[in-house]
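The material for today's practical consists of a large collection of protein records. Read left to right, the C-alpha cells trace the chain's path through space. An example says more than a description, so a record of this kind follows:
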Amino acid sequence: MSYVHRVICLALNYQPLLRVIGVMIMGMPENGICKNGCSHFSREMRICKLFTNGIYMPLKSHVESFCMTQRYEMCFTYKKYFLMKKLETRSDREETRDSTGRRHHVRIAEKRNVVLRTCDSLGITVGDFIERAMTVDFSQGGMRVITNRGISPETYLLFDFGDDFLIPRLQGVAQLRWQKKLEDDPQRMEAGMVFKDGFSQSALAVELGM
C-alpha cells in the first residue's frame, strides 16, 4: 500500500475523532452545523438574508468559518449591517452650527495617511489620479487633508485609510468641497471634503460616540 493510501485510510479511521476536535475548537456539533450560527443565513437556500438588493451566496469557506459557527459576529457583512442598525436606533443629537449657519461635527485633530483616487458617485475608480494625502482632522461628516497637488472642484474621491486609522482600512467615497494653498508651503494644498457614502459616516458616528 502506498504512502498516500495509508494516509487516506488513517484519516478515515480517525474521522470521528476529527469531528470531536472540530466541536471543541469551533463550537460546532458533529453534523458541522452550529445551532448558534447566524440566524440571517438560510441553510436550505445557502444565501445570506442580510442582502436586500439581490441574492448573495457566500463562499463555502466563508459559510464554514462564520455563518454556521459561533464566530458569525466576526463576519464583515454582519458587522456592517448591525453597525447601520445601531446608528438608526441611537438617539438623535443636536448638531452645532457656526455663525454662517453651516452644520459641522466635532473634529478629531489627527494626522493619518490616506490614499485618494478619483471615482464616480458610486465609488468606481475613474481616471488615473492617485494621491497620498495626510489628514489634518476628520469627523463623522468629512475630513480635511493636505495634498501635494490640486484637485478639480466637486471631484468624487475614493479614499483608503491604513491600519493606523480609528477604523483600520476604512474605505469610502468623499467629495471635494474646497481647497486652498498652504500659507507656509504654497506648493501644497489644503482641502476639505465630505463623506458621501453612508457606511463611512455611520461607522465614524458609532466609533466617535456621536
About this structure: DSSP finds five helices and eight strands in the chain. The radius of gyration is 24 Å.
